[in-house]
Amino acid sequence: MCSYAQTRSVTITEPGIYEIGDLFKTANVVALVRIVSGDAENYSCAIYKGEVMQSLKGSQKGMIVYFGPLTGRRLGEEYVLFLRNVDHPIEPTKAAASYGTVHYSRIFDEGYSSMETSYECVFDGDEIAQKCDYGVRICTDYIKLPKSMPAFPPEENDPPFGCRWVRKNTFLYLLADLGKEKRVGLQT
Question: Domain end: 72, 96, 115, which one?
Answer without folding.
Answer: 115
